[in-house]
Design a protein that fits this description.
Elements (H helix, E strand, L loop, with lengths): L9 E8 L6 E8 L5 E4 L2 H11 L8 H11 L14
Antiparallel strand pairs: 1-2, 2-3
Length: about 90
């Protein structure tokens, strides 16, 4: 597996606090390459963090090329894969 900008590696620890109906899960997430640890008070907090970390992002140099491509194209609103020239 290639490690780089498109790769994340974590050690996830979960433990339950309280008992019965009031039990909640606590979470610790350690980023493997850096050793940085984050604590979360709920699974929802963890999922929010992971969602933010995995949002699509432009690679360096890609954003400028994408913007140039959009401004120069006359078919910017066209459906991909459909020939609009007819």
């Amino acid at each position: 597996m290639v490690k780089g900008q498109g790769y994340l590696s974590f050690l996830l620890r979960l433990w339950q606090v309280g008992g019965g109906q009031g039990a909640t899960w606590r979470v610790s997430l350690e980023e493997i390459p850096t050793g940085e640890r984050r604590a979360f008070a709920s699974l929802d907090d963890l999922f929010g963090y992971l969602s933010e970390r995995t949002k699509p992002r432009a690679l360096p140099g890609e954003a400028a090329a994408t913007e140039e491509g959009r401004s120069d194209r006359s078919d910017a609103g066209a459906t991909p894969g459909v020939d609009q020239s007819r």
